[in-house]
Design goal:
Blueprint: H1 10-13, H2 31-46, E1 53-57, E2 60-64, E3 70-76, H3 77-82, E4 85-89, E5 96-102, E6 105-109, E7 112-114, E8 123-127, E9 132-136, E10 139-140, E11 143-154, E12 157-159, E13 162-168, E14 172-174, H4 214-246
Protein name: Choice-of-anchor A family protein
Organism: Halotia branconii CENA392
InterPro entries: Choice_anch_A, Ice-binding_C
Length: about 250
């Protein structure tokens, strides 16, 4: 479990100090890389199995935790929209709490939240699927991760950081940094650049052909010539002897 410094105010996240900074051109923040990293984080957290129980009753959402380190709750976005309050219990004050809220559109109005002593700096509202989130009269006691959502935020406040695709409304933000412990997002294995030749079995080397040296070829030629000359000489000599005998 490690602390991921992505759910921080922009100034803290990128080490920027805007108090006395002169105006200059440039691109100090790689927004594309940050968006991809935060998308990966949201998707990974959204895929975690719920570690506790969630009940919808009496017009509210009741969550019972039991983990002193990390508590993950899965909440139906339609229930969040139709309920009027959320009650959390059984979670230690230093535990990290992740609310995975499902659904494409979530509308929260005049909603009450009771964390029962849990540190709001360890609370994360993760809108996993949402493309539209509308809140009115609601105080997020924690940070909000809604990377794909158009966030309409009116008459309320966020006690932490809000990360969304776009933001509109008149909500209020308080400088409360997220300090919870979240699991590491698994990184894909880098492709291997090492080349391995295909297996072709046993390769039989062709037999070597002996090529005679040029001097050896010349010697064989001369030897053949001499042998032929000697044979012709014997034949001529025998022919001459026969001729003398006849005469």
């Amino acid at each position: 479990m490690t602390y991921l410094p992505l759910i921080k105010p922009v100034s803290a996240l990128f080490g920027l100090d805007f108090s006395l900074s002169p105006v200059s051109s440039g691109k100090p923040i790689d927004f594309d890389a940050a968006r991809q990293e935060l998308n990966n984080l949201s998707n990974y957290l959204g895929g975690l199995a719920s570690t506790n129980t969630t009940e919808y009753k009496w017009g509210g959402i009741y969550l019972q935790g039991n983990n002193s380190d990390l508590n993950v709750f899965t909440i139906d976005g339609s229930q969040f929209s139709s309920s009027s309050y959320l009650n959390l219990s059984g979670v230690g004050s230093n535990s990290t709490v992740v609310f995975n809220i499902l659904g494409n559109s979530v509308d929260i109005k005049n909603f009450g939240l009771n964390l029962n002593g849990v540190n709001k700096q360890n609370v994360l509202f993760n809108f996993v699927d949402a493309t539209q989130v509308t809140t009115t009269g609601f105080s997020f006691q924690g940070s909000v991760l809604a990377t794909n959502a158009n966030f309409n935020f009116s008459n309320g406040n966020v006690e932490g950081t809000l990360i969304a695709s776009s933001l509109s409304g008149s909500g209020e933000f308080h400088n409360t940094q997220f300090t919870g412990n979240l699991p590491n997002v698994p990184q894909p294995e880098p492709p291997s650049n090492q080349w391995h030749p295909p297996s072709t079995g046993t390769v039989t080397e062709p037999s070597a052909t002996t090529v005679p040296e040029p001097g050896a070829v010349l010697g064989l030629f001369l030897l053949g010539t001499l042998v032929g000359f000697s044979r012709r000489s014997r034949i001529l000599s025998q022919s001459a002897s026969i001729a003398n005998t006849v005469h």
